[in-house]
Amino acid sequence: MTDIAVGALRVPAVRGFRSEVIGRLRRDRLALAGLLIVLVIAVASAFAPLVAPDDPVEMRPAERYAPPSRQHLIGTDFFGRDILSRLLYGGRVTLLVGLGTVAINCAVGLPLGLLAGYLGGRVDTVIMRVADTLIVFPTLIFAMALMAIRGVGLLELIIALTFKGWTPLARLVRSEALAIREREFVQAARAIGASHAQIITRHILPNSLSAFVVYATLGITTPILAEAALSFLGLGIQPPAISWGQMISQERNYMQLAWWPVTFPGVIIALTVLGFNLLGDGLRDALDPRLK
Q1: What is the pTM of this model?
Q2: Chain mean position to CA 148
Q3: pLDDT tens digits, residue range 198-248?
Q4: Quick check: helix, strand or coil at residue 153?
Q5: Residue 186 near residue 139 (C-beta atoms within 8 A)
Q6: What pLDDT shows up at residue 25?
Q7: Do the Cβ atoms of 56 and 76 come closer than 8 Å?
Q8: Nearest to residue 120, comparing CAs of 163, 180, 166, 168?
Q9: Are 207 and 176 in contact (CB under 8 A)?
Q10: What single-letter DSSP state applies at residue 28?
């Protein structure tokens, strides 16, 4: 960011940009609602050992399918386990899959997109053709094949979800870099002898961060839903670990006996996805320079 001259002082423009973005977010009630949903779910899951009312794996056959009550706020499952406690512990695994997948996708897609957009030529062609090749593979089918070869586990699940998950970010950052590299300040930096690394890290990357932040916020919902789908099929997280999709899978055949073991995990998945989508939409609007 360049500085803005104010009398004899020079005030960093980035400060004004930050305050402007924060101000827009504060005025966006839907974005604040999304942020609140995400924070509540993330904090409750992170401190599950402190806030969970019961042991999530302790079986009590005598309390099988106990309805919501003071003792069990949202009831128990087929084995008499407290559903609220299992939701809190399951959130740790589900959010770990989402955050871990997005982190790896960003670590791969961001630098490749920057290199493809800034350097262009053969580098751009090779990176984009690899992305085009990977994007045709259906994620769930590839995940099933990987699980069949390596077995079912948390690491295998994250690998399956990151196999082609970096390609949308790489394409998005590439488009930003293609536009930014032709801007006057980049041409000036090149004219005074700045290296490619300096131009990318000081000019291209900072001006591409808005797209990166929006992708990271919105992109976390895809692995969360994919994990739920794979766990529902029996190819996701395996006991004794707990995930929301696994909870639905274990109880789906007994909905006629009790609705709460399936309903509440489904609701929490929907709320989590809704929260991240609302927050991502708010960040996109706040970071959009065309709204200045």
Answers
A1: 0.81
A2: 26
A3: 888 888 888 777 777 888 888 888 888 888 888 877 777 777 888 888 888
A4: coil
A5: no
A6: 74
A7: no
A8: 180
A9: yes
A10: -
Q: Does domain 33-291 have CATH number 3.30.565.10?
A: no
Beta bridge partners of 6: 9
Phi, psi of 3, deg, nearest 5: -95, 155
Give me 196's structure tokens: 């490619």
pLDDT value at residue 6: 37
Residue 235 to residue 141: CA distance in whole angstroms = 11
Element (H, E) at 122: helix 121-135
* Per-domain boundaries in the chain: 33-291
Tokens representing 253 are: 């055949």
83 vs 74: CA distance, rounded Å: 6
> What is the tens place of the pLDDT at every residue in 42-71?
999 999 999 988 888 888 888 888 888 888
The answer for residues whose C-beta is within 8 angstroms of residue 123's C-beta and 6 or more apart is: 115, 116
Supply 78's token pair. 């087929």
Q: Return the residue matching tokens 């259906």.
A: 138
**Residue 268: which pLDDT band, with cuts at 50, 70 and 90?**
very high
How, if at all, do strands 9-12 and 3-6 pair?
antiparallel
Tokens found for residue 203: 């000019």
Tokens 């770990």 found at: 96
